[in-house]
Amino acid sequence: MNALLMMVPLVVASAMPGYKHVGGANGVEVYRQMQSPDIDLVAEGDIDAPPSMVRGIVLDYANAHSLSDHVAESKVLSTKPGEMVVYQRLKLPVVADRDFTLRALWGERGGNLWTRYTVDNARGPEARDQIVRVSTLNGGWDLMPIRGGSATHAVYRVRINLAGSIPRWMVSGGAAKDLPKLFEGVRHQAQRQVARAMR
Length: 199
Prior knowledge:
By secondary structure, the protein is of the alpha+beta class. The chain has helices at residues 3-6, 51-58, 168-197; strands spanning 19-25, 28-33, 39-47, 71-80, 83-90, 98-109, 112-119, 132-133, 136-146, 151-161.
């Protein structure tokens, strides 16, 4: 996926053609693209923090484990204005670990903040034994201010193929359950930042 395509705004999930509502929790609704050969999910919900804070949290790749229990390793390899390269290893139940290198971008459009990421394994470490290298992974966040800018309506999309011999129904169902937990992780980190700022 090239940089231009990565900056195309995410449509509100409920209006995206081909997506079916597959669940949700804690004020987060999850949709899945039923025709995609990959795991292609969109989640949306509100976060009680301004978009700038939310974006800072989701771009804090050095502490990505605070948002998801599946992140076993996350290293920022390089950074420059509007771009970051990150290596991550995921520890998943039952199956072998997965790893990949991401190129992350971020910016602003029409008063909304956004992030996008896509696999760029050529800019990261070599593949390791007993870890499956992921070659399809892209997505990002669109962060829209609500409540006068004090809160955020967030739309998150992820498309991934975990490779290996894993039944698609198994991983897609688990991923759909994980997205509300991701939002909860962002909310928790936002609450901690607000609490620190008030001391």
